[in-house]
Each structure stands twice: as C-alpha cells, then as structure tokens.
Write a structure and sequence with these properties.
The chain is of the alpha/beta class. It contains 13 helices and 18 strands.
C-alpha cells in the first residue's frame, strides 16, 4: 500500500513538472513571438531611414525579408531583399539581395496566361530557398508589371495578372493588398531614382546632391532627375513633375516614362511593324539591318519577318534618319539637360555598351554620349563584323544615340555612369518599390 502511495505521488510530481515545462515553453514562445512582432512594426515604421550596407553584423538576430517581382517586357525578375536590425537602438540596414531572371516576359504569354503564371511559380522557388521557412508568413510578396503588360489589350493583361494572383494566393508568403498590379510608368522612373540614389548614398546627403537616372527597357524608357532650376519645373509639360516625401525631405522631380520608346518597341516602330501584328506574310525592312539579313523576330508574343534593304543602302546616316522619325517631337527636351551632372544609365543602355565593347561586362564604366555615337557609326558601317553579336546591333546603338541626342537633348560630353549593380544590388526600380510598399512615398 505504501509503495502504491509513493508511486502515485511520483506520478503526480512528474505530471506537475511536465506541465510546468510546457507552460515555460509556451511562455517563451509567446515572448519570442511578441518580440518579433514588435520588431516588425518598428522596422516598418523606420524603413524610411534605411542606409545601404552589405556587411552582415555579428549579431543579426532580427532579420526581415521582402520579395519583389519585376515583370518586364523581355523578362521576369525576382529580387529577394534581406534587411537587418541589429538592435532596437540602431537603424536597420539592407544586407543582401538575391536576384534571378527568366525569359521571355509575361506579355509573351498573352494567349497562354497559365504558362505565364508558371514562370512566376518557378521563380518563386528562389524566394523559398532564400527566406527561412519560419519567416515565410511574415515576408511580403509583390509583383509589379511594366511596359510589356501596359501595351497588351486590357483583357489579356488582366487574365495574366489573375493567374499570377492565384499563384501568389497559394504560396506560403504574406500577400498584401494590391500585391499583383501594373505599375504606373512615372512611378517606375521615380522608384528607380530612389534605388540608385539610396545605394549611392545621395539620399542621406544634406546638400541634396543627387544623380539622374536613365532606364531603357524593352517597351518603355524613363528619365528622372532632381532639377537645379525652377524654370525646368515651370516649363515642363503637364504630368512631367512628381512630388514625394522621403527621409524627412520633399522632392520635386522631373520624371517621365515614354511608353512605346523602349528598345524593342523602337525596333517595331522603325520597321513599320508597330500596330501591324498578325501580318505573317509581310516583310518589314530597314536600312539599320544588314542588307542580306532576313529572319523571323519575336517580341511580345508576336513573330515578324524582318529584313535588310536587299536592293538598297544601309549604314549609320540612313539608319539615323529612320530613328529621327521615332524620336523627334515625341521625347521632350528639358533645357537643363544641356548643362547637367552625371546620369546613371542601365538596362539596355548597359547591355548594348557591353555588346559593343564600350564597357566591361562585369564592372561597367563611365562614358560620354559621344561614345555611343562613335560606336554606332562603327557598328553600322561594318555590319558584317558585328552580325554574329546581333543583326540588330546597328539599329539598337543608333536608336540609343538618337534618343540621347535628339530625344532628351543631352550634350555630347554628358557623362553617363553605366552600371548593372551598385554595392551588389541591381539598379532597377525594385528596391525603391519595396521601400514604397513598406512606407508609402505618397507620389503625386
């Protein structure tokens, strides 16, 4: 009997100890959750004060993530950002970016929206492999589409976005409101400006000395800079000036996005193929292409037969005259650009400069506008030499030259910083858009 009593007492004691252990574990879990939640709220409120840093702190206990998809006209890219807050008394920092891309862009799947969404789901694996599983539910997932979808008929663009939304809804990440949408063209330029000036440290300068940005995509091109002269603001066309508040300062930027003036849509325009989709029998010709060149070329889900002038002439001068029709009178020229500071140029500006050997493909470099002109002349007058690189190289380089000179009105000695990354982070609007998600910039 005594043994039975002792046994019961031991069982009761063990039960009590086990219950206490469970309660302690639950309390610790609740405390950790509360700390994480408090840190997340604090991070969101302080994001406007982020500063770029690519060195991981020794004590990186508070780590947060953001996933941004850039659905462009020629490809879809995923940016996975890691932000770190070392302790509550220090500002959070941008620690790292993981970047991957896939071609073609979503617009190529206009008639196969499920396939377009599948490409997004494949890229989503990058986020799953980068963000720890325990952080998935608190990591926002956002996709912004640009010119490729802006150029599509509304119903087709909507069908693509709905399929992508389904992929997002089935993912384990946090899906905010308006997580899948088409970005306003002006915002695209402004957010790229925010990204570059943040990464170069200019947004933290009390002198407010900033750099302008030039972004050349497949379907559109953007220019954004902070004017030095009030006349630039006063004389700008309606809709070319945007204001927003960031880092305790109000910025008034000259910014515009030219839909249809991206590199690929410029090809269509100079060939006379823009708006002539479905004419499979027609051959579109240009003196910007090698005389004996003839092939099929696809963009935006359509295929075109293109050719050089077999019985005509080719070369820089003729090509430039064709390009003037695409640029002249379409692109506004701010007077201030004739005497301005350095501009950062990326996307196809960078890619074509690499293709022609103007800059190193890894390090980038600084060029003058005249360097594009000189290279365009060489490529166009020796098309056979560069045909293996791309039969469109003369057309592309001449368009870039014409856009810079007769479009925006840059002087030949204007400096352009050609770059793909700054501090290991892609120079695109994606980082600026991630800031915009966490802290509304109130662009208007």
């Amino acid at each position: 009997m005594e043994f039975e009593v002792v046994r019961c007492e031991l069982v009761s004691l063990l039960h009590a100890m086990l219950l206490s252990l469970v309660l302690v574990v639950l309390a610790l879990a609740a405390q950790i959750h509360a700390q994480r939640s408090a840190t997340l709220v604090d991070f969101s409120a302080s994001l406007g004060q982020l500063r770029p840093c690519l060195t991981r702190p020794a004590n990186s206990s508070h780590i947060f993530y953001g996933v941004m998809f850039d659905a462009g006209s020629t490809g879809t890219r995923i940016h996975v950002y890691t932000f770190i807050r070392k302790n509550p008394e220090e500002l959070p920092v941008l620690d790292n970016e993981v970047f991957h891309s896939i071609k073609p862009g979503l617009s190529a799947y206009a008639d196969m929206p499920e396939m377009g969404a599948y490409t997004v789901s494949e890229l989503l694996k990058v986020a799953k492999n980068t963000v720890p599983r325990l952080e998935w539910k608190r990591t926002p997932l956002v996709l912004k589409a640009t010119a490729g979808l802006r150029l599509l008929p509304l119903e087709k663009a909507k069908a693509l976005l709905e399929q992508v939304q389904d992929v997002f809804d089935e993912s384990p990440f946090y899906i905010p409101d308006d997580s899948v949408s088409i970005m306003n063209g002006t915002n695209e330029g402004i957010l790229a400006w925010v990204t570059v000036n943040f990464l170069t440290g200019h947004l933290h300068s009390k002198t407010r000395k900033t750099v302008g940005i030039l972004d050349l995509g497949g379907g559109s091109t953007q220019i954004t800079f902070l004017p030095k002269s009030k006349k630039t603001i006063q004389n700008s066309p309606a809709g070319y000036v945007a204001r927003f508040h960031l880092f305790n300062l109000t910025y008034e930027l000259y910014s515009h996005s030219y839909l249809g003036n991206g590199l690929m849509t410029a090809r269509l325009a100079v060939l006379g193929a823009l708006g002539n989709e479905g004419l499979e029998w027609k051959v579109f010709r240009s003196s910007c292409l090698p005389k004996k060149f003839s092939d099929d070329w696809s963009f935006g889900g359509h295929t075109y037969k293109v050719s050089g002038m077999v019985d005509g002439y080719a070369g820089y001068k003729l090509c430039y005259q064709e390009m003037l029709k695409v640029v002249k009178g379409v692109v506004n020229q701010p007077h201030e650009l004739k005497d301005t500071g350095i501009f950062y140029a990326f996307s196809y500006y960078y890619d074509r400069a690499v293709d022609t050997g103007l800059i190193d493909g890894t390090r980038g470099g600084t060029l003058e506008v005249r360097d594009f002109k000189k290279s365009a002349k060489e490529v166009c007058n020796k098309m056979s030499k560069y045909r293996s690189v791309s039969p469109f190289l003369c057309m592309d380089m001449t368009y870039i030259t014409c856009l810079l000179k007769d479009g925006f009105g840059f002087k030949e000695n204007t400096l352009l910083q050609l770059t793909k990354k700054v501090n290991n982070v892609e120079t695109s609007w994606a980082l600026g858009a991630t800031f915009n998600h966490f802290r509304n910039l109130n662009i208007h």
